């Protein structure tokens, strides 16, 4: 495997894991992207997390998941694959609270009828535990999610970009449909304070699904 794009330190076990990840992605994107593109996206995705990962053993998994999302987005942008489903990107500062709850509600209510991603202008180290707990009260598990940055291809692939407090740091592409949701930041708040933020996010997600003409339901 080429290491032209690999700048972060890497152990032998991580290299084995990345090699396996590249093989899986090559199978998934066979006929769409070649090995060089897949490896480049995988390794640049790895670099995004290497400097701030809490558990180094999870790095290859995070890189694979993020590379898969980015390649899917690129295929949509380039017209190589578009299944016609509405795609929404939720952005906040740390991608740890508001955007993660919005993603959870969107996926829960939209099921496979629409696609949603999330990102942050300054990704944190982990999803806010109070956001995880608040969503668990609604039967939605976001504990496996992780803060991640936004990338150009992901923004360009979205039909709607929903921003939440990232201000000028949020990406702006001409002609893209944007919505700005003014919501309190759950960072540093206790569960009681996060609940009303969670409920307002769900209300807005349901309204967005209605505007997108996506039938909401429990997935």
TrEMBL record:
Domain Phosphotyrosine protein phosphatase I intervals: 86-211
Native organism: Jiangella asiatica
Protein name from the UniProt record: Arsenate reductase ArsC
Residues that span the membrane, as ranges: none
InterPro entries found in the cross-reference section: Phosphatase-like_N (IPR048716), Ptyr_pPase (IPR023485), Ptyr_pPase_sf (IPR036196)
Pfam family, one: Phosphatase-like_N
Keyword terms of this UniProt record: Arsenical resistance
Gene Ontology terms: biological process: response to arsenic-containing substance
């Amino acid at each position: 495997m080429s290491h032209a794009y690999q700048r972060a330190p890497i152990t032998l076990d991580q290299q084995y894991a990345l090699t396996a990840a590249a093989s899986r992605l090559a199978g998934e994107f066979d006929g769409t992207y070649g090995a060089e593109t897949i490896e480049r996206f995988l390794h640049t995705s790895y670099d995004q997390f290497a400097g701030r990962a809490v558990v180094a053993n999870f790095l290859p998994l995070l890189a694979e998941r993020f590379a898969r999302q980015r390649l899917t987005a690129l295929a949509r942008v380039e017209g190589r694959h578009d299944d016609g489903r509405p795609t929404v990107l939720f952005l906040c500062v740390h991608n740890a609270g508001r955007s993660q709850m919005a993603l959870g509600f969107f996926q829960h209510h939209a099921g496979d009828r629409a696609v949603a991603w999330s990102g942050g202008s300054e990704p944190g180290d982990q999803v806010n535990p109070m956001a995880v707990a608040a969503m668990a009260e609604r039967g939605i598990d976001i504990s496996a999610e992780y803060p991640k940055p936004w990338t150009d291809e992901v923004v360009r692939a979205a039909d709607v970009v929903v921003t939440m407090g990232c201000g000028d740091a949020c990406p702006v592409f001409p002609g893209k449909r944007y919505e700005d949701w003014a919501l309190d930041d759950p960072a540093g708040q206790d569960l009681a304070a996060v609940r009303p933020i969670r409920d307002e996010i769900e209300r807005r997600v349901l309204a967005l699904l209605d505007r997108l003409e996506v039938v909401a339901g429990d997935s």
